[in-house]
Amino acid sequence: MLEGNSDLMVKKPELDLLRTFDAPRRLVFEAWTTAEHLSQWFTPGPLTTSSCEVDFRPGGVFRLTMRMPSGVEFPMDGKFVEIVVPERIVFRAKIHDDNNVETTVTFTETGGKTTVSVHQTFAFESDATRGAHQGWAATLNQLCAHVARS
Amino acid sequence: MNTERLSTTFSALADPTRRAILARLASGDATVLELAKPFDMSLPAISKHLKVLEHAGLISRGRDAQRRPCRIEAAPLKEAHRWMERYRRFWEESFNRLDEYLHEMKRKEKQHARRK
């Protein structure tokens, strides 16, 4: 028996989170549509965005490089999969080698405030490639640890 | 953190049957036979899932050669959970920035509207 751990048992290894912003959906959605906007907020502090390339259409690129204060860089190489203005954005990104994360962002507006929901699925290396690389899990570990310390 | 183990844990957890097996084991140890019954699956099919779970360190098997009861192991689950929580923190930091940036976007929009 594992008292108090039952919530962990049946969870899919996926991430879901919600955040409400005091701004109309039109504006919140717009913040995701250009490199100029995204480089202002997408990278969590204290990291900075060293480069950002966004071609906001299905199949278009979404590349962003985050730089740690030490100078170490974390590139993300992504593509937009689906775009429904101003409701939904789906993008798939390679963080390291062939490991992918798919992110679905949904925007809903209530009374002038906008709720953004993020759903992420993680695809680690397949059985065939396992062991070949430490993979992006290691990269993210380092990155997330850095953010958590800040 | 062992990322090799983390990726093994994640792929083991990706399957709904394996998550259901773990949920069942969370309420107590069970044999392969006991596990096969509620899932309406053949013994080889269940055994295959158990091998994946065992390889991921999510379960251990008893030494009793006849029954080999399965037991859930909490450590890799906790590790996977911790890892996800750090990723959540990553988003929260980004969204703090977005929150500030939206204020700026709103302010610029107002200025622009006034100039018209």
Quick summary:
The complex is a heterodimer of chains A (150) and B (116). Chain A is an alpha+beta fold.
Describe this structure as you would to a colleague:
The complex is a heterodimer of chains A (150) and B (116). With 150 residues, chain A is α+β, with helices and mostly antiparallel strands. Chain A has one domain: Alpha-D-Glucose-1,6-Bisphosphate, Chain A, domain 4 (2-Layer Sandwich). Chain A contains 4 helices and 7 strands; from the N terminus they run αβααββββββα. Chain A has a 7-stranded antiparallel beta sheet. The relative contact order of chain A is 0.18. Mean pLDDT of chain A is 81; it is low at 1-9 and 126-136. Chain B is mainly alpha-helical. Chain B has one domain: Winged helix-like DNA-binding domain superfamily/Winged helix DNA-binding domain (Arc Repressor Mutant, subunit A). Chain B is 72% helix and 5% strand. Chain B has 5 helices and 2 strands; from the N terminus they run ααααββα. Chain B has helices spanning 3-13, 16-25, 32-39, 43-55, 74-115, and strands at residues 59-61, 70-72. Chain B has a two-stranded antiparallel sheet. In chain B, strand 1 (59-61) and strand 2 form a beta hairpin. The longest helix of chain B has 42 residues, at 74-115. Chain B is elongated. Chains A and B meet through helix 1, strand 1, helix 2, helix 3 and strand 7 of A and helix 1, helix 2 and helix 5 of B.
